[in-house]
Design brief:
357 residues, two-stranded antiparallel ribbon, 5-stranded parallel sheet, 41% helix, alpha/beta, elongated, 8% strand
Length: 357
């Protein structure tokens, strides 16, 4: 699937934002795209370009936050040979590269005041001057800029030029966060899930269980669509059984061994070497080392650490059932009322595979 086809959604607030962008696309005026990280600002910028009269000309993208302040002006406007140390030959800037087309400036709010002043002149007069040059060059460029900040507040704070904001905000398209378009979560999850299944060469796609979808709809998605894509693709590639996917992990960094985690008190039982699991459909949680008894557990984890204590109990139950059934996995699964695959998955979560090898 082409990257430009990934504008997916059917909620009213999302379609309203797309409609505003589509109407502005045909006008040769600057557009400012505002939204939280992961809401699809670059995809909207591509839409603005491809629906404009400049569609067959270059679309040049520059992330203003990806370069140090000393190089931003050279990147935007270019430089002549010998204009500064290391400039062994002349180089065109992004404005000249985008001549006749569209220049997309991502993370606009990170530009320094000096770069803002030169950008204002380029937008105002359609002229750029390479660093080290004495004459300006004419360019015909449409500006689309994006930011995750409320720039009027930056103007009030004196860190963004009011005249530049006036020039760039002919039209402002504000993208809603994913938590404001929850009806799109199932559509997006299915889209990303099908694509990942196809990438893995899987012939069938049975989607997610109702419980997994309920968890995804109730999650706040601070990383918006980009985070949803990661969660869905991770769930698809980790799913080893057939049928609908029932296990979702929202935080891939969750681990009892992550840096800064307090070390549990010494215990005669060996610590678990893997994150604890939960029932299908729930986010994965981590399991700390086994305590000597329930009283020690209460002292170590505190009364509020319910999930860790449940995970510890689950591991102890699995270990005892294995021992009672002489480490026969099929007999253990039958005794616990689990399928063989469910037991194997639980043993992996609690690092007990070695105990039955």
């Amino acid at each position: 699937m082409e990257r430009t086809t990934q504008v997916v959604g059917q909620s009213g607030v999302f379609l309203d934002a797309l409609e505003r962008a589509s109407r502005a696309a045909g006008l040769d005026r600057p557009v400012l795209v505002i939204g939280e990280r992961g809401t699809g600002k670059e995809l909207v910028a591509e839409r603005l370009h491809h629906l404009s009269q400049r569609w067959d000309q270059p679309l040049v993208t520059m992330n203003c936050a990806a370069l140090p302040e000393t190089l931003i002006e050279a990147e935007l406007f270019g430089h002549e040979a010998g204009s500064f140390t290391g400039a062994t030959k002349a180089r065109v800037g992004r404005f000249e590269e985008a001549d006749g087309g569209t220049l997309f400036l991502d993370e606009l709010g990170t530009l320094s005041m000096g770069a803002q002043e030169r950008l204002l002149r380029a937008v105002e007069y359609g002229e750029v001057t390479r660093i080290g040059a004495s004459r300006p060059r004419r360019v015909d460029v449409r500006i689309v800029a994006a930011t995750n900040e409320h720039l009027p507040d930056r103007v009030d704070a004196g860190t963004f030029r009011a005249d530049l904001l006036d020039r760039l905000s002919f039209e402002v398209v504000t993208l809603p966060p994913l938590r404001a378009r929850r009806s799109d979560i199932a559509v997006l999850a299915d889209f990303f899930g099908r694509r990942m299944a196809a990438e893995l060469g899987r012939d069938e796609w049975e989607g997610f269980t109702d419980e997994a979808m309920k968890l995804m709809r109730s999650y706040r998605w601070p990383g918006n669509v980009r985070e949803l894509r990661n969660v869905v693709e991770r769930a698809v590639y980790r799913w080893e059984r057939g049928g609908a996917i029932g296990e979702i992990e929202f935080d891939p960094f969750a681990s009892p061994y992550r840096p800064g985690t307090p070390r549990p008190a010494a215990s005669s039982a060996p610590p678990s070497a893997a994150a604890a699991g939960t029932s299908p459909g729930e986010p994965s949680r981590e399991a700390p080392a086994e305590p000597e008894d329930e009283e020690v557990a209460a002292c170590e984890v505190g009364p509020s650490d319910f999930k860790s204590r449940v995970a510890r109990f689950e591991r102890e139950l699995l270990a005892k059932a294995l021992a009672d059934n002489r480490f026969n996995q099929r007999a253990t699964a039958e005794a616990l009322g689990l399928s063989y695959d469910q037991l194997r998955h639980a043993l992996r979560r609690h690092d007990l595979i070695g105990a039955v090898a």
